[in-house]
Records
---
Amino acid sequence: MKRFLGFVKKEFLHIFRDVRTLIILFGIPVIQILLFGFVVSTDLKNAPVAFLDLSRDEMTQKVSDKICSSGFFRRSETLLNYNDIDKVLRKNETKAVIIFEKDFGRKLFSEGTAAISIITDGSEPNMATLITNYITAIVTDFNRELAGTQVTGTLLVQPEVRMFYNPSLKGHFMFVPGVITLIMILICALMTSVTITREKEFGTMEVLLVSPLKPVQIIIGKVMPYFLLSFINVIMILLLSWFVFGLPIKGSLILLLAESMLYILMSLSLGIFVSTVSKNMQQAIFISFVGLMLPTILLSGFIFPIENMPKGYDWIAALMPPRYFIIIIKNIMIKGTGFFYVWKETMILIIFTLAFIALSIRKFKIRLQ
Amino acid sequence: MTGNTVISVRNLVKKFGNFTANDDLNFKVYEGEIFGFLGANGAGKTTTIRILSGLSEPTSGEVIVAGYNAKKQPEQIKKNIGYMCQKFSLYEDLTVKENIMLYGGIYGMRKALIRERTDLLLDKLNFREYGDSLISDLPLGLRQKLAFSVAILHEPKIVFLDEPTSGVDPITRRQFWEMIYEAAERGITVFITTHYMDEAEYCDRISIMSEGKIVALDTPDDLKRQYDAGSVEEVFVKIARPPSVQKGAQIQY
């Protein structure tokens, strides 16, 4: 045991002496969380819209005021004719143009309907859809107010939509679990595979194997520090997302931490496996980055829903361990569900962990022959 | 050289698939001896060292190292040997003292004992002032000497040196050999592979391997006499032909 502890201490020394390792371990998670949280925000906030008001009456004034005072939009420009639309959209300072038809107010009262056109920039499809939805909602709201006060006879049935678990559809609710999932697998797998291949490359692995330390002790000794640091990392990310984004943890914190430990363990064993198949550090880094980061982003359901994937892709996605952890973490953090709802995913993660460990032991034995 | 036998190899065979890396090896190494293990690249030296150090299992034959059977008690063997390989074996981002502490600890030495030996060692090598510097700040020659001192820190019965002097300047090599002699005098058996034929002359006995077989084994002087050669290098060229064709399964690191 004493042999083993000295060995673990040495691994900590490696980590704390290497600035790059420290940056990867602690800098990247913080930067990623802040980056995804703030920059890749999918919420609308003060999006610039231009108005082309061909009617210029009280009603158009009311509608545009309502849009601009919603907090989602601000008036960027007031246009005078159709030719300007293309110009402002091309300048990129305006995300959408709202057009009120001629005699808007008069038509509304005499015919009961009047047209508002929304022209959005289709080169940013997500933004365009988002803006259209928001404006439609605001106009619907306006209709309802109108129905309540002035216009008589028309009784409008309005759908009332509520988003459960994430009422304002906040983007970080989706990103924080995703980022935790992505970062943990990346860091754990990358760091362990690199630290083990480094020993191989520098020849120190030979010396360790010839020593009385057992191979299992060597591997556990190398991986344990990363397990502890990654766990601290998870706590750090959770604290950060709570303080900065106000993201609550609705379910059991202990369950969440336990599941995170399992996921870290899975990622570490994946890292060990990567180290047994790669000959040097470059290869390990390449496999970890290209082989893990891209599939995790694209196929784990982090950004793109798995349900919408074409046949075949969803099969590949089923082989991505992060996919299951995302489900677990979203369930616990956002929906507040208990273990009963995530036991299947938990089992799958355990199976992945055992499979990676078994494969690594096999590879290791063959190498030692 | 008629001390106790510390390594005894009988009919050792090691096969990788169809490829025979070690073909019926037989030899003995005695206590306190400096045993040179020579051979061209791919002759099977590394395979033998791996078997002797308990890293790899022999396919057949009997291998006894430091009194333990290599097939059945590799863990016991590991406790009683030291090892230093051609690649550098200390951690560059740890200090001299930390490296010593680490390896001492791995071999189960008590802290007080490690400290005591560290002081002795630093004094002897004349680099007391380097105790707290990182290995990466030391010149290669010093590192190599230190690596050897660390490999025998726990006073093993046998130390395996796998091309320990490649890439080292002549002066350091000379000093390195002085350290080897000193260790041998203390009773540590030295099992060394090398590519430098002048170094082979320093050994008590040498064996030459070719295509998985030991083709010669004797003292350097006797070998020179037998093969009517002026130096071990000549002997080596006469008998150790390089492997005729590079065969399939090479030993991989």
---
Amino acid sequence: MAFANPLITAYAVEATEFPDLARHYRVSGVPKTVVNETIEILGGLPQDLFVEQALQPNG
Amino acid sequence: MPLLTPADQETLRAAFDEMTSPVRVLFFTQTLDCESCLETRQILDELPPLSSRIAIEEVNFILEKDKAAQFGIDRVPAIALVGGDSDSRIRFLGAPSGYEFISLVQAVLLVGGRATSLTPENLVRVAGVDKPLTMKVFTTPT
């Protein structure tokens, strides 16, 4: 998604290496995706659903 | 001692052969207090021998703070993938071991010219985003 839009930046974060981040974002399971500090997506989703949730207007 | 088996190397070499543009792998690192920086360097060193289009550029996180800030890096080890024309804005925080290595390879291929895995419909939706979006995907080594 980041590659498709210059406004999007994507970080793949290794949770066990950065427990401070995992705590801050309340990562209790992986994969967990956090968009703009507000939207949380838990687990792996089919692409349509993932894009829909990641691009929610309240993000 | 290579981390990849000869068979893995051949598979990757064939995949990287499909790349049409160069990829700069910016590796942000520091010598002290970074347990997985060395491991990350060892993993990344596996890539350039498999493709002349892949280059590793080491960035000293302590001495090159401006560059780290420019690429949105606030901890190490970190990787930023930069394409021939522009920054891909794809980052990896932590050592790309286990399944993350596959993710890194996929990202390198994408930046190197492989077609996106997004469907045409989703590509339109993503391209339509008109405000900055930062996505953090948390994973664990497997």
---
Amino acid sequence: MSTQSQPLIIIEELGKTFTLHNGGGATIPVFGNLTLQIEARECVVLAGPSGIGKSTLLRSIYGNYLPSVGAVKVLHHGVYVDISTAPPYKLLEVRRRTMGYVSQFLRVIPRISTLQLVAEPLLDNGVALDEAYARAEAVLTSLQLPRAHWDLPPATFSGGEQQRVNIARSFIRNYPILLLDEPTASLDAENRAIVVGLIRDALAAGAAMIGIFHDDEVREAVATRQLPVAQFKLAA
Amino acid sequence: MTVTAQQSNQPTQQYNYAYLDEQTKRMIRRAILKALAIPGYQVPFGSREMPVPYGWGTGGIQVTAAIIGPDDVFKCIDQGADDTTNAVSIRQFFAKVADVATTEATSEATIVQSRHRIPEKTLKQGQILVLQVPQPEPLRGLEARETETRAMHAYEEYGVKYVSLYQSIAAHGRITTGAGYPAMVNQRYLMTPSPIPKFDNPKINQSDAIMLFGAGREKRIYAVPPHTDVRSLDFEDYPFEIQSWEEICALCGSEDSYLDEVVLDDEGNRMFVCSDTHHCSVRRDAGHAGPLAGHALATAQEAAE
Amino acid sequence: MNALAQQNALAQQVAPAPLLSVTGLSKRFGNVAACSDVSFDLYPGEVLGIVGESGSGKTTLLNCISGRMAPDAGEVAFATRRFGLSDIYSLSEPDRRRMQREEWGFVHQNARDGLRMRATASANVAEPLMNMGGRHYGKMRAETEKWFNRVELDPSRLDGQPRLFSGGMQQRVQIARNLIHRPRLVFMDEPTGGLDVSVQARLLDLMRELVRDLNLAVVLVTHDMAVARLMADRLLVMKQGKVVETGLTDQVLDDPQQPYTQLLVSSVLQI
């Protein structure tokens, strides 16, 4: 893990503007001039009204959206890797080992069992089959997903159940960095509390997080810092 | 020039020595020399129209015609027998066009032309065996494209041949190929030894004689020079085995020659006799006898001789 | 240099070498530029998807980089076992054929092109072993049984002929045949094209598992964006022979930069 003085994420002058070539070439600026450093045990919550670009910002940090300008440096194996310029194999390595992303939606190959889906991040990192499945079972149990569901593909689950599978995938490993996009959106109070517990445990273990939380309670429970996104909003 | 009735009724036309013209013989000899220089490699040659159609031994006849001379002694067998129709007619053909002595005794022959068998009597230095070959390409059954098989030979890519042996074992528990059993020549080229029974494959290995293979329809000649390594394909756990019989030759009692099965009547009676007729008669003359010695078959053979 | 820069420099130095490196590859057919100036590097464990519509040049590109067709310009360098990093077209034909057999796999869209339809399934799967000198029947047979299980085929069909199998089963035999010799790079040409959707799903997952377990590098050509999203880590988007856009799959599909890519992505039906 990093030393106390080294931030896990360094964001420099990050900005994103979309260009819709087939929409008459319209440009949609979203945000710009974002500079930010995040250290271990910090959970920076992106705050602001819906539509302001919180999700876009998060995705730009992950590399899911290509930043238009600026750098996102992630501490990976002791070295900073710039997400916006790194070669693909490096980016894939960073995502596999260092930076996880909890999205709002579960998008996976159909017909694959829940257990297998949850175990995948471990298998991708070389964990033995038995151990990976055992840990998957443990994390699903802690998220109160019924055992009967484990061998079924999540396609027919409720929104909340799918989301818990999503969360299980992201918390089965100790990612040094976690990006969370409305992870508790479709969960009831009890399950929200469980997720809060998982987040706090991960933070205590040294993770750095950036998150978007719809729910005030959750936000208050996990945030160490709030970042109002409005200040980075670009004029259209 | 008109040909009179008298002229066209002449009993013998004027053929070149051994039927083929000198240019053709030269071309075939070159192919043979190249084949001997590259054991097992199929040399294309300009196969000619012969007095028998393709499929009746034209390749063997052309090879013999190119190498035969007035001092040679010629033997011809068809599946081991000197007295079948085809063996007789080819023997008489060369007697006529090459003016050579002929024989049924393997040890007296200088050239032995054969369809589908190698004589039991071990061939010696100075003898030439000419085998008739229907399909010279051992890979044809699995790979129809000539372009591909040529590349496979050139690059020594013979894995595919093991595929057919593999399947044989999977289906029958053993390699069931009985004739035309593929063999590696000089550790380099894969050849089919023509449809001789696998029983005869070991005779090609390290022979003192020259072995020539002619395929007239497919227009290929290949050869195994004396003292050449010829290994039949097999697997480590399924080694190459030759055929064996529980029976012995009914006429001469031979225990180690290749036996043909002869059906005697409609009641399922049969007998096993040496495929190599000369080998059998030599043994009988020496006093050996099998369980059915004196059978009509033996008498018929002697009558033909 | 400060500590951070020094660390970065160190990271650059120990960067892994690419398995496949394509540089400036071009191929013309008469006046038509089927491929223009294509370049990319591929690392072990990466699945590269080459996507584009019909006529985009992706099949030509695949043929050129898999050694089937020499390009008119450019280089295809592969880290061969025997000769190190070499332009595959600088190798002699026997060496190139041997490398293709021993270090690569090629899964065709149509099993007919990738299997011997009249040989048994087991023989098909064992053939690469025999090509590489395998001469022990029992061991090879055991290996094919293992692989049959691995690709989720019923072992009772081991001695069946692929021409009697379903399309999905034929593809599984093809996959087994192309992996049994432990290649490092596998080319796939629309491997699930023409199969039922449910069959596709299982096959794709099988392929992902195998890629992970064997640390394979894969070049996957497909016109199906859904397959690309599921299988590929990164994409090369082709149009009229040129690479129009490249990047991680989720980035190219969620945030396409180029006009053509935006058009392509927006045209895909979402179910």
